[in-house]
Design brief:
Order of helices and strands: EEHEHHHEEHEEHHEHEHHHHHEE
Number of strands: 11
Oligomer: single chain
CATH architecture: Alpha-Beta Complex
Largest sheet: 6 strands, mixed
CATH class: Alpha Beta
Strand content: 15-25%
Strand order of the largest sheet: 1-2-3-4-6-9
Helix content: 40-55%
Length: 285
């Protein structure tokens, strides 16, 4: 089955990440399929707005760590040492560019989040124009604790410096309610009303002419470009490669190979492992 589905429902283009068996985790093919679907919406004369969603119980749980972290030895995102940072940048900037197709799209994009939008999944969501979350859904970038830096860098542009640092210094996952209170997302609604709320917003936007929508989006986006968005994304993407090839990043990769990525992620998120000394933390207070 297609890993990303495109459908048009009247004036609404619906793009759905379609790997529900792994919570729509990002593999080598999904970024390109997403960008292709956005291009299809942009060229569809009947589409006025895009609703981006994830099939199943989550929007997107990030990169597929079964392949990229637990798998033995080198892969696309962890090279043999010494590593080539520009080779890594070329691969990761390609993904970032494909996620940013949502930001650059001629159509407004509403992202609907249930379950989780974490790590690379939050990168995708935050490239959308608006996010509506279920109140009990979770969003965050846990790999900032080890093995990651958000390449799209949209946290600071949505939250400002202090609140972005709060999220990126902790790697916490916050609920839709907290995300709305911080201003990270447009709003949070009860899970059983999520579809209704997103569709109501999409139908409202869809009554506006395409050229009007495009002009407003281009104008707002230009303000973010003027704030240095592209330069920030470049350094974030280079830093992301460094995090995966630093001593701590390599220790995380080895731990994932030995114990399984779920075990390593639990140690990372709970703060029970010292990735610099490569041993459990015995005292943290």
């Amino acid at each position: 089955m297609a890993k990303v589905i495109y459908e048009r429902d009247g004036r609404i283009a619906r793009i759905t990440l379609n790997r529900p068996e792994v919570m729509n985790a990002i593999d080598d093919e999904l970024p390109g399929a997403l960008a292709d679907a956005v291009a299809r919406a942009d060229s569809d004369p009947g589409a006025h707005v895009i609703v981006l969603a994830g099939a199943g119980r989550a929007f997107c749980a990030g990169y597929d760590l079964t392949a990229y972290a637990s798998g033995d030895k080198a892969n696309r995102y962890t090279q043999e040492m010494p590593w080539d940072p520009m080779k890594d940048y070329a691969a990761m900037s390609d993904n970032t560019n494909k996620f940013m197709s949502l930001f650059r799209s001629k159509r407004p994009v509403i992202c609907k989040v249930q379950g989780f939008a974490v790590a690379g999944g939050s990168d995708i969501a935050l490239c959308s124009d608006m996010i509506v979350m279920a109140e009990d859904a979770r969003i965050g970038y846990p790999p900032v604790r080890v093995w990651g830096c958000p390449t799209t860098a949209m946290w600071v542009y949505r939250l400002g410096a202090e609140k972005a640092k709060r999220m990126l210094f902790t790697g916490d996952k916050i609920t839709g309610v907290e995300a709305a209170a911080l201003g990270l997302v447009l709003k949070a609604v009860p899970a059983d009303r999520l579809d209704e709320e997103v569709d109501a917003l999409a139908h409202r936007i869809a009554t506006v002419p395409q050229n009007q929508l495009m002009m407003q989006k281009l104008m707002v986006n230009q303000a973010l470009y003027n704030m240095g968005l592209m330069g920030t994304q470049m350094i974030a993407t280079v830093f992301d490669g460094i995090t995966r090839h630093s001593p701590e990043g390599l220790n995380f990769k080895r731990r994932s190979e030995e114990m399984g990525w779920k075990h390593a992620v639990d140690e990372r998120d709970q703060g029970t492992f010292d990735w610099t000394t490569n041993q459990p933390i015995t005292q943290n207070r």
